[in-house]
Amino acid sequence: MRRAIAVAAVCCGVFASVGWSAEEAKKTDGVRTLYLIRHGDYDSDDESDPTVGKALIPLGVAQARLVGARLRGMPVTFTSLHSSTMTRARQTALVIGEEFPDLQLQSSALIGECTPPTRRKDVMEDETPEDLEACTRQLEEAFPVYFAPSPDADRHDIVVCHGNVIRYFVTRALGVDTEAWLGMSIANCSLTVISVSADGSMKVLSYSDSGHIPPNLTTRTAPGGPADLEVPGVRRIE
């Protein structure tokens, strides 16, 4: 029996000793699942530095509460809560954190918003080579930190960050050209879920899922202003 376990482990590319039990062998099957959330809608007209300003507007807070409720309803035990150090991401994470009082928020500038190289020439014209290089260096440093395998145990990590960052991470998880990231749109407080197997392989399980946010609480990008947050009146039946 012991020899069978050892042979099975070696065949899977995992070093094993003859003394391993079946229970110990199972520990190499851990999966890390990342729940990537773009921050809620924020005051884009605020000229303050984004680490101290550009706070969530009421719509963004409502969106954060909705995605927090959705996470709370999932049949998993979340193991960590992360955000970028930028105000809009940190505030979104704090709202979500109200659903998970046992999780301590961990913030990092590694997942702060930046613009990596893209195929879009109009976007590239507004960026300097130095900024593009710095962004790529930052995100390439962040990726192995957050997407590291967890072979010893399953993990479910909530990561609140930014649209550009999440889209770049998706291209990395898929193993495609990272300059394709701007070919995807992403909604505020949407949910992107990526799993990392024990062997480091990754799967994108969902992308920019905003089914938890009703149309009247969805950020509008078309002309017409922000979504109406007023409670509609009750029509009286004569």
Folded structure, characterized:
With 238 residues, the protein is of the alpha/beta class. 32% of the residues lie in helices and 16% in strands. The chain contains 7 helices and 6 strands, in the order ααβαβαβααβαββ. The chain has helices at 2-11, 22-26, 58-72, 87-97, 121-124, 129-146, 163-174; strands at 32-38, 80-84, 105-108, 155-161, 191-196, 202-209. It has a 6-stranded mixed beta sheet with strand order 3-2-4-1-5-6, sandwiched between helices. α3 (58-72) crosses α4 (87-97). It is globular, with a radius of gyration of 21 Å.
Q: Quick gist of this model?
A:
With 238 residues, the chain is an alpha/beta fold.
Short descriptors:
238 residues; alpha/beta; 6-stranded mixed β-sheet; 7 helices; disordered N terminus; disordered C terminus
How would you describe the shape?
A: globular
Tally of helical runs? 7
Q: What characterizes the major β-sheet?
A: 6 strands, mixed
**What gap, in angstroms, lies between the N and C termini?**
79 Å
Radius of gyration: 21 Å
**Topology, number of strands:** 6
Residue stretches low in confidence (pLDDT < 50, at least 5 long) are: 1-22, 222-238
Helix content: 25-40%
Mean pLDDT level: 86
Order of helices and strands: HHEHEHEHHEHEE
Class based on secondary structure composition and strand pairing: alpha/beta
**How large is the share of residues in beta strands?**
15-25%
Strand order of the largest sheet: 3-2-4-1-5-6
